[in-house]
Amino acid sequence: MIPLMKNAFYKEKQTTRALAEFIAGSPKLSMGEQCEAFEIAFAEFQNCSDCVLYNSGGSANLALIQAIMNLGYLQPGDAVGFSALTWATNVMPLIQLGLIAVPLDVAVDTLNVMQKDIVGRQEKIPLKAVFLTNVLGFSGDLPAIKSYCDEQNILVLEDNCEALGTVLPEGRTGNFGSASSFSFFVAHHMSSIEGGALCTDNGDLAAMLRMVRANGWDRNLTEEQQKRLRKSYKITDEFRDKYTFYDLGYNLRPTEITGFLGLNQLAILPENIDIRGKLYQELESAMLLNENFMRIDHSHIKTISPFSFPVICKDQELARQYMDVFKAAEVEIRPIISGNIQNQPFYKKHVKETYDTPGTDFIDRNGFYFGIYPELSEEDLATIKECFLK
After folding, report:
1. What pTM did the predictor assign?
2. Domains of the chain: which residue ranges?
3. CATH of span 12-267
């Protein structure tokens, strides 16, 4: 079988050996120096000011929405647009924290929300923010989205969990809004088993993200930030200052294992991304020999860092046919993320209003994906190409 991912880590043997040695020699495994070192290194890779590490990508999404509300950037009852083709943990925090979740349709040829989709929705319901998912390593027209949202005073957030390493001529995906989330779960571009992060250039938001991560206290802020915060709240008791909780938060802290693995995988991430991109190009060339499939438009993307390989058929009958072909060849396939999130039971239970999202519906009915990663063998590639040509 060709699974979605063969190994827990890229270069797994050397990684697991290094991990075993690290654990055996570490007196402390709760959040500390390894996590801090990773945050610095990942911020440099992403070309942003701050990275805050979490115990999962889902936790990062929750912390992001909570931090934004703590700072007053959003208020309960504000409408937030989100990619209808997304993962549940992008939407659940909006619902849980009292915001109005408004699905944004995606374009079939890019898999992503485009500026026109936001404009169309904004004309019907005023949006205070949009939370965009960069689907499977691709993106929408992010520069145009940023420009429009800046004009309309709409806060832009990115879920870049599936597009780590993707680059547009204007910059890396994840850097077109106020903050972006990342996941380091197994089968993502880089794995720390569990783990996630948030990146931002907003210093106030970065400080709040660290507070939200750890129960709302200030222990992980800089000394200057602590002094400023304590002064504003008139906290002068040195006995109690470390046990003062300033705002709403959770315990979403990672462990040193997360930080260590993150540093390990980050060092070989460029090589991983390069291989993924070349594999995508090779397989895409084979797929486009068959007119039953649709081409994903990535002409606006400089470097594709694919999370997986999307297959979009031209109709539902073809989709059923090719799903059977891939299954018969023992190539593991999945729906495109979660399909149209409006069809999920939790969403129907908690959100009463539905919106037309024809592009998302088309992808949901006619699409699936399979894994793409450096461990794919020549035999694996030959098997997949044969599936495309049937």
Report:
1. 0.96
2. 12-267, 270-388
3. 3.40.640.10
